[in-house]
Amino acid sequence: MKKDTLIIHRGRHPKDHHGIVNPPVYHASTMVFPTLAEYEDKAKKPFEGVQYGRAGTPTTFALEEAVTALYGGHKTIALSSGLAAISVTLTALLKSGDHMLIADNIYAPTRKRVADVLLARAGVETAYFDPGAGIKDILQPQTRVVMVESPGSVTFEMLDVAKIAAEAKAAGVTVVMDNTWATPLFFQPFEHGVDIVIEAVTKYISGHADVMLGTVTVSTPEQFQSVKFTANALGNCPGPDDCYLGLRGLRTLSVRLERHQRNALRLAEWLQARPEVDCVLYPALPGDPGHEIWKRDFTGASGLFGVVLKEVPKAAVAAMLDGMELFAMGDSWGGYESLMIPTDPAKVRTATEWRGPGPSLRIHAGLEDPDDLIEDLEQGLKRLTKAS
Length: 388
Ligand SMILES: Cc1ncc(COP(=O)(O)O)c(C=O)c1O
Hints:
alpha/beta; CATH 3.90.1150.10; 2 domains; 7-stranded mixed β-sheet; 4-stranded antiparallel β-sheet; 38% helix; binds pyridoxal-5'-phosphate
C-alpha cells in the first residue's frame, strides 16, 4: 500500500471497538488478570501486550503500529517527547567507555543536554563531525553510535545519509537518525541504511501545536527490547490523550505537508529575491548547497527553512519581529500556524564554523494563505530597513 493509504488505515481496529472509527483513549495504570496462570504468564513476555500502564495501553500501541507501518521498521516505541525519544535511545545504546559521533548540525538539546551533560556524566564521549563530510576517518574502536539529522532544523544542511550509514555499518556502528523535518512521508531512513529512527511527533505528525510526543522506530527485536526496557526503567510513558491526538494528527499529515511545502517554497522564493536577504536555507530550492542530495533522496520538503539577512543591528531585527501579525515567535514548528524566530547557529557548533553576514531567522510556513504571509513579511522587512 502507498503511504497516503497507510496513514489513513494503520493503527485502527474498529471491529475491536464497536465499529468506532478511531481507537478509544484508554486511561489506565492497572490491568487486572482473572487467573493466577494469566497473571504469572505476563512476566514471561516482558513488554508484550497490555500489562501495566507504564508499558502502554491499546491507545499507545495504535500510534506505534501506525508509525511502524510508515517507516517500515520492526517496531515503534512512543515516548513523552521528541527529546525523550532521543535521550532514551542513546541511553539504551551507550555505556561508560563508549564513543559517539554526532553531526554538527544536530538539534541543540541533543548535544547540549543529552550528549554533553547526561551521557558525558555517564562516561560516554561524544565527538562532533562536519555534516558535509564522511565519518570513515574519525571512527574510533570504541565508537558505537552515529547520530544524524538531515536537514538540520536550524541550518538546513543536508547529509549524505546513505554514505555515512555505509561507513558506520562497515565498522559495526549503529546509526540513529532524527527524521522530524522530513517525516516518513518525505524520507525513508531505513532504505538509506539507518538503524533507528527518531521522530518528534510533537511537530508535523501531531500538527496542531498542542501535544508533546516522540517515537523511536527500531529495525531489530534486540533494539526493541533495549529501548523499551530503558524507557520503562526511566519511567517514560506518554499519556493516552496525547497518543490519541498524535494519531489523529497523523491522519491528515499528507494533506497538511503538501500545503506546508507549497507555502514554504513560495515564501522561500520570494525572500530569496529581496535585497534585505543574503540567502535562504532550504534544500528544496535549486541552488541550495543541499539541493542535489535532497532531490536524490527525498520525496518532498516540509515547511521549515532558514533565512540569513544582510548585516543589520539587533534593533532592526526586533522591529521586524515585534510587529509581525501572522508569524508568531515560538520555539516549535510543525503546527498549522506560521512561526518565525531569530537563530544563532554559530553558538552551538564545534566541528565546523557557521558564518553569515547578518542575523539568521527560522521560518515555519503554516497553512495560511501565502499572499497574507508574504504581505506580513513585506511589512516586516520594511520595519527592518527603517530601523537599520
Ligand atoms: C529536530 C528536532 N528533534 C527533536 C526535537 C525535540 O522534540 P520535543 O520538543 O518533542 O522534545 C525538536 C524540537 O524542537 C526538534 O526540532
